[in-house]
Amino acid sequence: NFLLTQPHSVSESPGKTVTISCTRSSGSIASNYVQWYQQRPGSSPTIVIYEDNQRPSGVPDRFSGSIDSSSNSASLTISGLRTEDEADYHCQSFDTSNYRRVFGGGTKLTVL
Amino acid sequence: DVQLVESGGGLVQPGRSLRLSCAASGFTFDNYAMHWVRQVPGKGLEWVSGISWNSGSIGYADSVQGRFSISRDNAKNFLYLQLNNLRVEDMALYYCAKGSHDYGGHFDYWGQGTPVTVSS
User: Quick check: B56 contacting A, CB < 8 Å?
Assistant: First the structure.
């Protein structure tokens, strides 16, 4: 089993770029795909990045994902921040040895 | 359009049982894995359990292993979660989520959730 650790909160101004990290506690971050979900207040989560860096149709290209083996972490980068991006962002990966999924603790993004 | 509608949540005493249901529509249900994810208000998401398209692979979080049981009825397009020996810490909003593939994949659609309250 492993853990995914995210910062509790981040904030940035409209128009700027923000990066949210997701660090895996053990095992390689590259060994299983990482997903990112956006959850606006009062709503269910929606996928914004899957398979490390793939964007579903309908998600703006301002959203991008990457992994860094040197820090054993994944990152979600949002450029050209808009107030509508204000939400909680959750990373998620797999523990394929036992058909389990793992979520990070979530990061609250404030755009102010 | 894909729709996932959860039901069965409610108020239950510690130690009692509950069965959650998820009615799926708008896609070929038996082609995809399905999952339950829960969230305590104001907290993060916690994956609870998942089941592959044919029920051949099933997984549980350590926190619910031995107490919860996931199942699916591909003929009726329903996903279920049997919650036994409920604890106060099981209190949360329970989401049904569709997998993007038959076995693995990410969660590409989510329901609105059904709340479970555990209290004496």
Answer: no
How far is B51 from B97, CA to CA, in rounded Å? 11
- Residue B97 burial class via C-beta count within 10 angstroms: exposed 0-12, middle 13-18, buried 19 and up: buried
Residues of A in contact with B57 (CB under 8 A): 99
- By CB neighbour count within 10 A (0-12 exposed, 13-18 middle, 19+ buried), where does B44 fall? middle
pLDDT at B105: 87
Query: What average pLDDT does the segment B32-38 reach?
Result: 97
Of all residues in chain A, the percent with pLDDT exceeding 70 is: 100
On chain A, the residues whose CB falls within 8 A of the CB of B50 are 99-101
3-class secondary-structure state, position A88:
strand
Residue of B nearest to A41 (CA): B42
